């Protein structure tokens, strides 16, 4: 039968099992995946959207751990993160943090992101590792900037975020526990940042988030610290891997790279197509809150339900020629940022902005950019990630 859809080694080797996912979409779209624990693998676009938009049926808060049990301390912390909550609890927190992430606020960041990108590319020449020199620092610098974290702290924030997300990859964390320890450090760091802003408010997102909104509601200290923790993971690794996965995809599709070089303004649609094609977040889990049917399949209360964005984003019912990478694709209703509903990615505008600016500048400045060595992938079934991508810039 099918390969193990969540085998970490397989992801490290060759990324998501696209052929198997395609077979499932066509023959067994809501598939019982045996294992410890077993779960329903949801692979079709419409079903992923349905699950994402019905948090009353598919909970984000019940039964947290997807594949590994975690220590109670981490579990308690995870429960408090909005990613792991359902409405109405989630709604209050989300509307408080939305204040910091409006499209207007994000667009105002564009000149700044251009500068960060320019500075990074100025430092690069000849042969470099695209991940270490470009894809990884860009979102990290942007997040640190958003938080008003001092430049001197960037490296430590970077190391923590690697340990948290790479907890299953020995290159990043010696053990999953190291990921937990790093999370505690980010948490404490956020606390420090907030304390500094309380003493000396600034015109930045931290100050905005610790102040009451127009209804007098505010994130308490704990909620704020957890939000920062979420940002450091959610805003960093995802964008990094969209950038490096996008670069690799452009190497694999030289005709599309030539198109971009000829017309760098295409980076706007290219950003979305990269997120569709790479699906940097491979999957997310939910838990059924009742006995229910999904595409003809009987699901029982408390069953785990896992949505595969990487599969839905290549579903022929939603995309013309889904297996063609087309940087001009428009419209592009991909669900790489989630299938809509309560948890839809808070940072989607920011991520697209970073990708647009980066690929535009790469195409303008380094039209002869090429791959010079083997790619090394992250050992993770959650993030479709790349650890190393050797390139020559000019
Ligand atoms: C949630 C993808 C960049 C912050 C999510 C979700 C996905 C996702 C799939 C879950 C959606 C769901 O469960 O329905 C991505 C991708 C990115 C990216 C592919 C880059 C290409 C960012 C950035 C930030 C961010 C830059 C912040 C600066 C968040 C947060 C959540 C989230 C806070 C949780 C929202 C909630 O629970 O209400 N993202 N993301 N993401 N993302 Fe992103």
- Using only CA atoms, what is the Rg? 20 Å
SS content category: alpha+beta
Would you tell me the overall average pLDDT? 92
CATH fold category name: Cytochrome p450
Unreliable residue runs: none
State the helical fraction.
Answer: 40-55%
Ligand set: protoporphyrin IX containing FE
CATH architecture tag: Orthogonal Bundle
Supply the number of helical segments. 18
Domains, number: 1
Given this structure, which CATH class is correct?
Mainly Alpha
| Beta-strand fraction estimate | 5-15%
CATH superfamily: Cytochrome P450
Q: What's the arrangement of strands in the largest beta sheet? A: 1-2-8-5-3
In short:
The chain is an alpha+beta fold. The protein is built from 18 helices and 12 strands.
